[in-house]
Amino acid sequence: MDLKHLADSYVDYIISELNLSSATVQIYSREIGMFISYLGDQKIAPDSITTSHIEDYIASRTKEGHLTSRTVSRIMSSLRSFFKFLQLEDVRRDNPVAVLDMPKSGHVLPKVFSNAEVDSFFDSIALGKPAGIRDRALFEVIYSCGLRISEVADLKCSDIYPGKQGAHSSIGRSISLLDT
């Protein structure tokens, strides 16, 4: 079976059997197309692909453009899925991508405001109307307790239990609203 036919069958498989989103299908299809083009250029048959071939392919893609670890992970994920399909179709007995480690993706730390920026933000809330007082109180709770917007949106007065050390919430986190 030729690679183009296998790629077309693979796309049909991920659409009908795996029910992947159209965006994922498009990305996987493009990645497999690029991989098949590489294999054709290198004259490598689908049943003879080794882990070294996969590593060489990823290295060649990296040389073309500086790929992030996230992009390399996407490439490897699409190839891993493709080789699982080849196993199901009895084209291959193994999955040469399965033994490769996925690259570690760096975690980007959130940017934080300086004290002056926080003060400026709080000062920008107009307190002349009840909505302004409400907004200021909500942002004070969000900021001082480190809550997510979704947690505050679900917060009700009945969720707050005052105590000696502040208050506790039934939202799954202990929040500290200390009396001053």
Can you characterise this structure?
By secondary structure, the protein is mainly alpha-helical. The protein folds into 2 domains: 3-88, DNA polymerase, domain 1 (Orthogonal Bundle), CATH 1.10.150; 115-169, no CATH class. It is built from 7 helices and 2 strands, in the order αααααααββ. The protein has helices at 3-16, 22-42, 51-64, 69-88, 115-123, 130-145, 149-153, and strands spanning 160-163, 166-169. Strands 1-2 form a two-stranded antiparallel ribbon. The longest helix has 21 residues, at 22-42. It is elongated and about 75 Å long.
The SS-based structural class is mainly alpha
The helicity comes to: 55-70%
Radius of gyration, in Å, reads 27 Å
Strands, count: 2
Number of separate structural domains: 2
CATH top-level class of the largest domain: Mainly Alpha
Number of helices: 7
Give the biggest beta sheet: 2 strands, antiparallel
Instruction: Supply the CATH architecture of the largest domain.
Output: Orthogonal Bundle
Q: Any idea what the CATH superfamily of the largest domain is called?
A: Tyrosine recombinase, N-terminal domain
C-alpha termini separation: 76 Å
Tell me what portion of residues adopts beta-strand conformation: under 5%
Largest sheet: spatial strand order = 1-2
Low-confidence stretches: none
Task: Please tell me what the overall shape is.
Answer: elongated
